[in-house]
Amino acid sequence: MGRVGSRSIAKNDLAEVVRVAKEAAIELHDSCRLFLLQTISQGVESEELRSVATEGTSRVLLSKLSWMMRWFKHGRGRIERSFAATCCGILLAGIGDPQAPPCRPCA
């Protein structure tokens, strides 16, 4: 038996809750990744963003956004706007010289 709030839940019911929650999380993740992929692709096509590998960039960005919530701790030194500005700056400007040649894959 497990417990959710004040309710007792049978083990098989708990397994079903976990299964449904995992499915929902995967669906949300895929939806967000698709949104990012489309947004980045449109930005590259319109030349508002520099040419990037859109699939890989969307995955990296989704990972960054997911971890950002773990990095940021409300009320611990940085205010939300400052933290958001730092994250946006890194996202939009990158951390390297935009005039530098792109990295090449390892052989």
In words, what does this structure look like?
By secondary structure, the chain is mainly alpha-helical. The chain has one domain. The protein has three helices and two strands, in the order ββααα. It has a two-stranded antiparallel sheet. The longest helix has 35 residues. The N and C termini lie far apart (53 Å).
Using DSSP, what is the number of strands? Answer: 2
- Structural class call reads mainly alpha
Write down the Rg.
Answer: 20 Å
Poorly predicted segments? none
Strand content: 5-15%
What is the straight-line distance between the termini? 53 Å
- The averaged pLDDT comes out at 76
Q: Percent helix among the residues?
A: 55-70%
How many domains comprise the coordinates?
1
String of helices and strands: EEHHH
Summed up, the helix count is: 3
State the major sheet. 2 strands, antiparallel
* Biggest sheet: strand arrangement: 1-2
Secondary-structure map:
Layout: E1 2-4, E2 7-9, H1 11-45, H2 54-71, H3 80-93
Antiparallel strand pairs: 1-2
Helix pairs in contact: 1-2
Based on the model shown, name its key terms.
107 residues, mainly alpha, 3 helices
Summarize the structure.
With 107 residues, this protein is mainly alpha-helical. Helix content is 63%, strand content 6%.
